[in-house]
Amino acid sequence: MSGKILVIGANGQIGTELVRALRQINGVSNVIAADIHNPAQPHTAGPFEHVNVMQDTELHYIFEKYHPTQVYLLAAMLSATGEQFPKKAWDLNMQGLIHVLDYAAAYKTPKVFWPSSIAAFGPNSPRDNTPQYCIMDPNTVYGFSKLAGERWCEYYFNKYGVDVRSLRYPGLIGWRSAPGGGTTDYAVNIFHEALQNGKYESFLSADTALPMMYMDDAINATLQLMDAPADKIKIRSSYNLAGISFTPAQLATEIKKHIPGFEISYSQNDPRQLIADSWPRSIDDSYAQNDWGWKLQYDLPAMVDDMLINLKK
Ligand code: SER
């Protein structure tokens, strides 16, 4: 059963959307969704395998069964949950990646995708227009698991020839799936609360700018990166990806244009504020633009417009 595309962590925020997009392009039966939990959503109907990335034997089974041509490894613990369970986050985020890279090397998997994050940067990185190459020093477990993961990806490319590709995603915003346990989750929750209750209490302060991206752009970037000829991929750690940078106050102002009575308030002393304060405010993604032609489509007004149209349905 070769020629299949395998998405591990298929039920998560990115996986839900990526499986859908890959199935539209490649056909439902050619995309194997794999996750530790059974799929809950009807739109994930299609081939499914239960897999725990911590279990070497389960991964072996799936590589042996499908000999996948592409593997997307999306199973991970995000920043805020990671601070509650530091060792568990490290184990899941690292062991999962190393297991998959090992099987990709052993089975000569043609292409592997693994997501990094803006969280790979830290308080000593330049905060504005953060360059591809600079001081990293991430100070969350999630962040340094991403930085270490980037190093492993580059290492497996150089040492074992695994064609692994990666993006440092900004906070991702989509209407089909919910994030879980992240610092950028407010920017998804706010839409649901605005429509349901007309108000939202943000756990980040009014002026906390973070790089964010609409899910459609994130999926396009991922597919474009994976489609690019191997010689165009000059960076084998992970590419900066900028998206749109805004604060909770700016997002609220944009939402108010559609829901005039919408009110935002701000909570104090949320632990996620410290995480956000250690991350870039905006990102320079010129390497992605120059190497494989990346171009963003959704700005803040377009993203808000599309989110509200779809969530209202
Ligand atoms: N969105 C993630 C988080 O907030 C960052 O990659 O944890």
Describe the structure.
It is built from 11 helices and 12 strands. With 313 residues, it is α/β, with parallel strands linked by helices. It has 2 domains: 5-120 and 136-169, NAD(P)-binding Rossmann-like Domain (Rossmann fold, 3-Layer(aba) Sandwich), CATH 3.40.50; 171-212 and 242-312, UDP-galactose 4-epimerase, domain 1 (Alpha-Beta Complex). The strands form 3 sheets. A 7-stranded parallel sheet has the order 3-2-1-4-5-6-10, sandwiched between helices. It has a 3-stranded mixed sheet with strand order 7-9-11. It has a two-stranded parallel ribbon with strand order 8-12. Strand 5 (111-117), helix 5 and strand 6 form a beta-alpha-beta unit. Helix 2 packs parallel to helix 4 (86-106), helix 4 (86-106) runs parallel beside helix 5 (141-160) and helix 6 runs parallel beside helix 8 (248-256). The longest helix has 21 residues, at 86-106. The protein is globular. The structure holds serine. Residues 78-79, 117, 119, 142, 169, 171, 182-184 line the site of serine.
